[in-house]
Amino acid sequence: MSHSTRIDYTLHLADNALILGHRNSEWTGHGPILEQDIALSNIALDLIGQARNFYQYAARLLNETGGSAGTSGEVTEDALAYLRDAWDFKNCLLAEQAGGDWARTILRQFFISAYQFFLYEELQQSRDSELAAISEKSLKEVSYHLRWSSEWVIRLGDGTAESHTRMKKALDDCWKFTGELFLPAGYEKQLAKEGIAPDLTLLQEKWDARVREVFEEAQLSVPDTEGKRAASPAEKGSVSVVEKTGSAAGKSTWMQTGGKEGRHTEQLGYVLAEMQFLQRAYPGCEW
Amino acid sequence: MRMVAEASIWSLLEEVNDPEVPVLSIIDLGIVRDIRTEGDRVAVIITPTYSGCPAMDAIRMNIRMVLLQHGYTNATITTVLSPAWTTDWMTEKGKQKLQAYGIAPPLVTQQVCHPGLFHREEAVPCPRCNSYHTHRISEFGSTACKALYRCEDCLEPFDYFKCH
User: Fold this and answer.
1) Which of B90, B26, B91, B24 is nearest to B63 (CA)?
2) Using CA atoms, how far apart are residues B53 and B33, in angstroms rounded to an integer?
3) Residue-wise pLDDT tens digits, A114-165
4) Within its chain, how far is the Cα of A128 from the centroid?
5) Which of A11, A86, B2, B78 is the most buried (most CB within 10 A)?
6) Residues of chain A positioned with their CB less than 8 A from the CB of B115
7) What Cα–Cα distance (Å) separates residue B59 from each residue in A158, A244, B48, B79, B135?
8) Taking a contact as any Cβ pair under 8 Å apart, which residues of chain B between 6 and 45 contact chain A?
9) Each residue of A186-240: pLDDT tens digit?
10) How many Cβ atoms are within 10 Å of A106's Cβ, its own excluded?
């Protein structure tokens, strides 16, 4: 069992939570109404708490192997969050995308909460007891996030003409980043073999079902299956088939990937510039 | 060497309050999972209510302070995540204290710990007038562990220590 594979995977889980948490925190003080401002800030807090648990574990593994995260001496959770550069981050691209309007923020949250929900459900049984424990804890919190974001997708999609139009626009913007969630990186494939990480194809089926259920209520269609919704259930997962064979079956089926391996969109740079500024300009600063 | 009794540590930790809900001790809250002693060594094992609970650092420090004040200098405080904290671990005394403080305690029958859609709202009694004629304003409240409700009879808003 390779330590570095496990460190990569733990950082991937941590980075997803931190980057989405930071993106959500951008709404603090700017939410459409006070209650939803507080809701999104609470979700941000949960995510950053989960990120801390993963970073603490990654730091422990790194220190056991004598690795470093851009600093000399002992690696800390803070060093992992504040002192790595964009190419070291392993979060999915969807997490780093700008929130845009409320519709896009909600849809981004819904897609990732659904992903995290089914992921943590499986990861609770991981052979790595620390990852299992963090997942068990996180799952309870993500249940709230998933319900809250699902209900908002429906409220907006099946709301006014304006909210519906904005949801459709959000879907156009976000969909191309969903394929990456289920395309395993090298470290995910390796750890799935070892019983540490779950098989992402199984997750995708559950995720698809949840998205379909919510979209049906929300009067929205899943982009890749437009016009063939009545097709046999075997058609599920067509996204990944298209992806894997690399055929360009149409604009909507093309999926952007790379985040898990450190190849990010321009968006991550803006997140890090804001999040890391203080520690870069005033190393070790506390307040 | 001074021998430490576990029972005396349990009662000492009754003095440590949750900084966010100061009416509750950490024992009431159910976050102290275990206390082990060996010789003069004290090990306290705690678990967070929520992953991002900002009170945990303060709680760890306050535990250490109380132990030091009583002469226990050889203490370790460890955080564990599994099994995950649940509102079921809150003591009866804790629930009564919450109610008296104006926060509705978690209900015994918990209906909302799942991701199902538009579930029926929990009937949470108002901590001031005991009316069940209440309405949820937001699932997320002033802290991660609370939801925001309003009583339609006495018209007061109140926090509900939500199911978890």
Assistant:
1) B26
2) 17
3) 999 999 999 999 999 999 999 999 999 999 999 999 999 999 999 999 999 9
4) 21
5) A11
6) 117, 143, 146-147, 150
7) 45, 50, 10, 11, 32
8) none
9) 999 999 999 999 999 899 999 999 999 999 999 999 986 444 433 333 444 433 3
10) 25
Task: Tell me how crowded residue A65 is: count the other CB atoms within 10 A of its CB.
Answer: 13
Which residues of chain A are within 8 Å of residue B148 when distances are taken between CB atoms?
A: 35, 38
* Tokens linked to A18: 């931190």
Q: How many CB atoms lie within 10 A of CB A162?
A: 10
How many CB atoms sit inside 10 A of residue B22's CB?
9
Measured at the CA of B31, the angle between CA B114 and CA A77, to 5 degrees, comes to: 85
Interface contact B140-A150, CB threshold 8 A: no
Helix residue ranges per DSSP H, B18-119: 26-29, 56-69, 92-101
CA distance A215 to A217: 5
User: Which residue spans within chain A are E strands per DSSP?
Assistant: none
Residues B128/B156, Cβ–Cβ less than 8 Å = yes
Residue whose token pair is 């499986």: A122
3-state secondary structure of B75: strand
Whether B91 and B23 have beta carbons less than 8 Å apart is answered as: no
SS3 A201: helix
Q: Are A196 and A12 in contact (CB under 8 A)?
A: no
Q: Which region, left, alpha or beta, applies to residue B48 given φ > 0 means left and ψ of -120 to 50 means alpha?
A: beta
Burial status of residue A16 (CB atoms within 10 A of its CB: 0-12, 13-18, 19 or more): buried
* Residue type present at position B73: T
ipTM of the complex: 0.87
Which amino acid belongs to residue B7? A
Q: Locate the chain A residue with the closest alpha carbon to B148.
A: A35
Instruction: Name the one residue in this structure whose structure tokens are 């063939």.
Output: A228
Determine contact: B76 vs chain A, CB below 8 A.
Answer: no
